[in-house]
Structure formats: C-alpha cells, structure tokens
Amino acid sequence: MSAVQEARKEIAVSIERKPRVSVINRLMNQLSSVRFGVTLLVLLAVACMTGMLIMQQSVQGFDKYYAELTPAQRLVYGNLGFFDIYHTWYFNVLLMTLSLNIVLSSIDHFPRAWKFISQKKLDATRAYLLSQKLNNTINLEGESHEAVVERIGNACHQVGWRVRVALKDRRAVIFAERGAWNRLGAYGVHVALLVVFLGFFMTAQYGQTGQMSLTPGMSSSEITGLAFHLDQISETTMRLPFTVECTDVQQKLINKDGSLSAMNTMDWLTRIRITDETGSHDALIHLNAPLDYRGYRFFQSSFNSTGNARTITLELNPQQGGEPIEVTIPRNGSAKLTDGTEIEYLNFLPDFTLQGGQADTASDEYNNPAARIGITLPDGQAKAVYAFAADVPDNAPVGAPFGGYKFKLKSFEKAATAHILSVQHDPGRIPFYAGSAFLILTLCSVFFFSHQRVWAIVEEKETGTFEVVVGGDTNRGRLNFEDRFKRMTSSIIGQTVKVQS
Amino acid sequence: MSEVLRQPLLASATATERRGLRSFLPAIVAVGGSILLVLLRLQLGGAHFISDEGLMLLALACYLTAAVFHLTNLYAPSEMAQKAGLWLATTGVFFNLSSWGVRWINARDMELAAVLKNGGEMPWFFRYIPFANLYDLSLAVAFGAGITTLLIANRKSFRFLGAVTLPLASIILVLARFIGSEMANLPPILDSYWRPIHVGTASLSYGVALVCFAVAVIYLLKDKVKPEAFAIWSSIFALVVLAFISRGSIFTAGVYRASAFEMMGGKGSSIPLRVTLPWVGQILIVVGLLLAGVIAAFGMYLAKNNEKARSWGHRFLRLSFVALACAIAMFVGQVKTMTNIVSRIDTAQYATFGKWLAEQEGLKPEQVAQIPSSQLYQAAADFVATRGNTLTLNLKANPVELSALITALVATFFVILFSFRTERLCEALPSLEKLDSLMYKTASVTFALLAMLLITGAVWANESWGAYWSWDSKEVGALVAWFTYAAYLHTRIARGWTGRRSAYFAIVGFLLIIFTYLGVSYLLPGLHSYA
C-alpha cells in the first residue's frame, strides 16, 4: 500500500472518530495541508513572474524603463509595489506562510513516515499481498518448509533487500526491504529549506553591503551603500571597525597593448593593509577570490577606467652624452640614481593635454601617455617634470630636460586609477551555505533512492506442496523495483513467471 | 484523469534480464569517443582538424537521421530501425560532445596566442571551458538531452523516446547555429571554477527537463488525448510566435521585418533597425488564418463531435504546415540573397532607432527624452545614409525568431504525424504506467538538478560579487520552474496526482525552463545577459 493510500485510510478513520473539528484545528489542518502549500507555491510563482516581467527598481536601466511608462502604469504598478515586489509585505507574508506550511505539514506527516522505520510491518495477510502493486503466487513442491523459506530469503537477499522471517506453525511471513530511511528524506529537504530561508532572512535583516573606492596610497574606513526609490538612487555611508589602506592595484591584461576594458582583462588585483586594534595585516583581493576579515568580505567589483600605470620605466638620457640609464619605479614609489639624484613617481596622465596651462588628460585612453615625476638633485634642488612616451622637442613647455637628464617614458604597466571593492557583512551566509549543502544531500537521498518493501507468505498446502504469495511496493523508482521483484521471483522458482502488477 | 495505475499489467519475469554496464554502452561509447577525439585535437593542433562548428553540424545531422529511424520504428517496428536509431543517436551525442570539447581547445588556443605574445602568464585551463555564451550553453543543453536519451535507452522499451527528444535537441542545435559560434574574450567575472559547476548543472537540468517534456507529450498521446487537441495547442503556440516576432508587425502591419546586421571590422552585430522582407509577412498572415481555422474547426469537432469540422481542421493543418514551410524558406532565401537592404528599411522606425543611437553615445534617458523627435529622426537617417553600405541581412540577426518559427513548424509536423495511424502508434508505445513512472523519474531528477542549479549559482554569485541572491530575471525564472516541479512532486507524492495532471505540470515546467533559457536572455535585462 502506498503512503498516499495509507494516509487516506488513516484520515478516513480519524474523520469517523472525530466528526466535529474545532475552528483552530481546521485552520491548522488548512495551514499544514499540501494543497495549501501548492497554492502558496503557485502564488509565489505568479509574484516572481510579475517581478520578472516588470523591471525592478534596483536593476540597471530602470530609469529608462520608468521614463517610458505611462502615468497610469506608474500609478498602478507603484501602488501595488510591482517595482520592488520582492520586498513588499505581501511577498514576505507569502514566504513566511510557506515556511509555516513546511513546518506544520512536516510535523503532521513525520510520525507516519517514522512508523516505516520504528514499527515495521513484519506481518501481512494473503489479501494484503494480493492488493500490492506487484504480486505473484507461486506453487513449489518437493522441498521442506525451511528450505522454501530459506530460498525466498536468499532470493530477496540477492537483489539487495534486508530480510526478516517470522515463523508461526506452518505459516511463515518473510519481510524484505531496502531504503527505509528514504521515507525521512523529504523532511530533511524541508529542514534544509528552512535553514536556507533562515540564512536569507538573516542576510536581509542584518546584512550590510557597500562599496569602497581604493586608489593606491589612500585609506578609508567607510563603505557607501545604495538605496533605491523608483528612479531615484541615494547613497548611505556605513563605518567599518577597521581602516583599509590601498597599497597597490594591478590589472592583468590579455593583450598588454590593448585597452583596460573588462573584455581585455584577466584579473584585477588589489593589495590592501588593514589596520585595527590587533595591528596591521596585509591582504590581496582579486577577482573571484574575496578576502574575509572579521566577518566582512571584500570583493572586486569594478574599476575607475581612467588609464594609469602601476609601474613606469624611464629612460634617462644624459645631456652630456653617455649611455642612457633605465629606471623602473612603482606607483607612489621612488628611485635613487648612483649620482644621488632621486626620482619620485607622482602621477600618470594617459592622454596628456594642456588645459588653461594645466596638465590634464583628454580621455581615459592611452593616446598620449605621460608620467609626472619629481626630481630631487643631490644639491637639494627639486622640480616636477613630465616624461612622455612620445618624442618631445627639448624646447617643449613640458618634458624639458632637468638635472642633466632628458626623461622619456620608455614603458609602463597599465593599471586602472582606482579599484572599487564591494564589501559585504553577511551573518546569513553560513546558514545559507549549510542549508544549501544539506538540501543537495537530502534531495539526492530522496530522488535517487527509494523504500522498497516485499512480503512473502509461505503456507504448506499438502505435505511437500507449498503456496508462496509474494507482494510488494515502493514509494518511488517503480521500474527499478519491478526489475528487482521479477529477478527475485525468477530466482525463487528458477523459470519464467508472470508477475501481476 | 486517467486511472492507469490501477490497470493490471502482465510482464514476463525473464523479459528483464539484469542490466549491467553493457546496456549503457551507447552512452559510454559516445562520451569515451569524444574524450579521445578532443585529446586527438589537443595533440594534432587545429590547423587541419575539423572545426567545432563542423562537428556540431554532424551532430545535428545524426540527431535528425536518428529521429527518422526512431519514428520509422514506431510505425513499422523493426530491429534494424531501432538499432540504427540508437547508434545514430549515439553518434550524434559523440559529435555533440566532441564539438563542445574541441571548442574548449580552440578557445584556449585563440587566447593563448595573444597572452604568450605579450609574455603574460599561462591562464588556467578551465578558463576556456565553453560555458561563456548562449551558443555554448545550447551545445551543452542538446548534449544533456542526448545523453539522457541514451541513458534511458538502456531499457529497450524506452528507445522510442529519441523520436521526440532528438528533434527537440536538433532545434536547440539549429538555434545555436543561428546564434553563431564566434568566440569572444571571456568576461573576467566568469573566470571562476563555479562556472562549469553552475552552467554544467544548468545544461543537464534543461536537457533532462526536455526529456521529461517529451515523455509527458507521449504520455498524453498514449492516454488517448486526441491529436486534434494537440493541434489546437500547437496552433496556439504558433499563433503566439507569429504575434510576437518582428515586434508584432505581422498582425499589425502585415509585413515581416528582419533585424539589420551591421558589419564592422570583420565582425557583425544585430542592430534595432528592421528590414522588410517581401512576401514573408503576407504568407505568415495566411499561416495565421489557417491556424485560426485549425483551432476553430478542431474546437468544433471536440465540442460537438462534428466530423466535417474535423476533416476541415486537418486540411487547414496541412495547409498551414506547407505555408509555414514556404514562409521560412522565403525568409532564409531572402536573408541569404538580398543585397540593397537600405531601400527596404521603413523610415517610420527612425525616431525609435534615433533614440537607440543616442543611448549608444552614453546619453541618459532624461537627456534622450529632451531631444526633439525630428533630431532623432535625422540622426537615424544620417546613420542609414553614411553607414548603409555596412548593413546587411544575416540569419544570426534573429536567432530566436527563426528558431521559434522552426519550432512551430516542427510542432505542426509532429501533430500531423501523430494524426496518422494514431492507434498503431499508441500500441507501439510502452504502457501508461511505465510512461508515468519515467515521467516522474525525469521530473524528480530535473527538480534535484534545478535545486543544484539555484544553489551553485547562489554560491558562485556570493563568491564573486558578494550577494547570493539578487532577484535577477534568470534566477527568478529558474526559481519559478523549480516551484512548478515542486508542485508536481508534492501533488503526486501527497495527493496521488498521476497521469494527465502530472503530464500537464511537466509541460508547464518545461515551458518555464525554455522561457528562462531563452526568453530571459533575449527579452529581459539582468546579470545573465551572457547566457
């Protein structure tokens, strides 16, 4: 008998016993019913589809979408909360009611499932076996009662079922089964789902997410979050319990001569130094490899696309003749020549231009790259000059020789001006991950295994003649069960048999 | 609702011999063979090796031929047809997986040349795993459907399944063909080991869902759902396709307009400027009228058992098939041959196209809204005048529209086929009980895989950008499909719903999956725009 049939019988019996049901019980029955659960699933699906088809306010491009709507659409959708449907009260109520339904229906059905493990049905009548999905009646001759029982036991064992035998006078009932724990799998799935929901709730309630723009040499202890209200976006600031200093940004390009665009990038690396009461800690964050620190996670999020250089290699041509000198300097770093001249890397302009007498960049691209460098001569004389990648005449207003050297930007390692990190504080992550892992395990245990049960009754009709009635059923995996059942019956009689199903 | 599970069935115990590894031989051969072929490609290099697209086309040819043999076997059972169908399907899966594997190596070679030239670091091998765009995903989904068909074929009685699943897998490969196999540099955010885990699960779940859908359709056929009822549903589907393609211009303006394709620097892309294809729209209107006739005639037949209406319905159905085939042929022919397309661009769309041009220049919506429509019109006119020579027509410009038309054609074809000797066809199919059991099994696997898809996606998102759930369209689409399969399983386990009601659930679940797979990618904005 299937779980559904057994459940129906029990419900029928309970209805007979309790003709009057109180309002609270009726409400509880409704809340715990599968029908109600399925209705909730359908309502949630409808709400989700609405959220899919009507653009949500946090999605990029919402302002354009909103601008194209008619005033009537804005009014109706807005009042119904369709622009942020996943955070509306009714969506939350649906989720909470579904959670309640899962809890109550699990409580309701669990005792019945537990009976399959705690109170195994070791006895069965002939009529019960003949009412099973698969059944067969076999007549055997010329063997002892014990030999027949042993043969059936062995046949069941061969196909992977655990066997128990109950002997009573001239009648033996053989009970064989496998995968009884599968009956509890669904409750495991429900527990896992509730843990996932708990994680989700904790993230929504206590989680913080913001962004932090980091330029080498700068530090910050604040993150900026975004709050959406229709087509208006406002910023909120949150303080971190530590200070983050950027020490280096690096961008690994596929084609080093190409642009800084995302499609030409293999990875972004940000090196930071975190300072708090425990001291200073150096760390690296790169794409798909976040950093965890004191419950906060740092992710690569985006970058300031204005071209910059992580390192510059300068070619210094002595004005008095001689071999050129090459010096490589990291961003915000400096180098000292053998003659005592110190060169400091101050700034980088990817597309150098003069605007109102001030050096600036005409675009974000590396069209006319120039590095601003500070020169300090051994005698203390100091000046900032520009080193260009392109050839510049000696009499140019910028890029003129200084300290006996003419400076040329020989090469540089391309990097963004700043990296933008996403910072997340999410106490719901661990329950979410734990629930998810448990969900996968329990789903596999539910759907890739089954609880198969078989009974056989052996009765001696005449001396040396036995009638064996075999019947059984499974909660899922019917085709597999049929195969086993047929193999088992074949094994009992060793020849072709017909199986009634 | 049918009460099939209560009907008795006699089965021979010896008919089911123990199925060992040997019964999975086709699946093992297909997968093992592809691994060897990919290794060979790695060893020999790509210069004289068959391209991944070539392998994909071979897979398509094998799937279609295998489907023909499976169908033949259903109507005229023969051991030869069954074996030919099985081994051609095996060959198809072999080519399908090989195409995907060779693409992996090709992607690596393409980028490696640039990286090594610059003295860069050798990227890790999994960076190139072909799960980077909709073409890759389509290859994998077709493989998922193919391998599931082969795995199920370990039971002889289910080998017929290829007759329905393989044409569906073929449609997916046709879609891939129209999307185009061009490789682009991988968006950096996708360079994660979670990508193969997540997208691999997605392709398998979509593939198994496709098989579940096929079983559900066959179940309904076996359960004596009249082919005329199928015809009504397929006609409604075809009418919906006609209503939505070409931005609804078939029924509003009586013309079909294909997207223009702009070729720049050897690369092409679709732009939101539509070119009128002569006669296609008019033929599609005829198709629409015939389909409406099919719905009316079969509706009358089903409601009043009117045999005359039935007869007319079948005539309309066959005519609609021929007309749709003509429209598709005309579509493809004109896209391939039309040269001067500028003269066929309707200037009424200039204002809208001008807006798009303004947005491409980085203007915000409120800025675009302030531009007078005459200025937008002029911008579009200037674009057509100056860059008209770069505009062309290409099948890759409208992959979903063309695939939807082909799907409507195939659906109509199958309904016509199923109307032919239906009784004989039903006799050749396994029992309702077995079909129901298989449907439940495939739905269960789909449900479990969809759960894994959602979880792996959430973990990947959380590891990459710090939010495991963003209510992104694709996430929500997969969630809705998961809800549907959850409802299917719960109604079955707890309320004993089997048979037709389960089949309807399975069909709705698959339609939602298709919407998630294609509809979300093409119609809705979101984080999954790459696939």
User: Which strand-content bin applies to the residues of chain A?
Assistant: 35-45%
Low-confidence stretches of chain A: none
Biggest sheet architecture of chain B: 3 strands, antiparallel
Strand content of chain B: under 5%
Name the helix and strand elements of chain B from N-terminus to C-terminus, one letter apiece: EHHHHHHHHEEHHHHHEHHHHH
Compile the SSE list and pairings.
The complex is a heterodimer of chains A (501) and B (531).
Chain A: H1 3-17, H2 23-32, H3 34-53, H4 62-68, H5 71-79, H6 89-118, H7 126-130, E1 134-141, H8 145-158, E2 162-168, E3 171-178, H9 182-206, E4 208-214, E5 219-229, E6 232-253, E7 265-276, E8 279-286, E9 291-293, E10 296-318, E11 325-330, E12 334-336, E13 342-349, E14 352-355, E15 358-361, E16 370-376, E17 382-388, E18 405-425, H10 429-447, E19 452-462, E20 465-474, H11 478-493, E21 498-500
Antiparallel strand pairs in A: 1-20, 2-3, 3-19, 4-18, 5-6, 6-7, 7-8, 9-10, 10-11, 10-18, 12-13, 13-16, 14-15, 16-17, 19-20
Chain B: E1 10-12, H1 25-44, H2 52-75, H3 79-117, H4 134-152, H5 162-179, H6 194-222, H7 227-244, H8 249-253, E2 256-264, E3 267-277, H9 280-304, H10 307-337, H11 350-360, H12 365-369, H13 373-387, E4 391-392, H14 399-418, H15 422-428, H16 432-465, H17 473-495, H18 500-523
Antiparallel strand pairs in B: 2-3, 2-4
Helix pairs in contact in B: 1-3, 2-3, 2-5, 3-4, 4-5, 4-6, 5-6, 5-14, 6-16, 6-18, 7-9, 7-14, 9-10, 10-14, 11-13, 16-17, 17-18
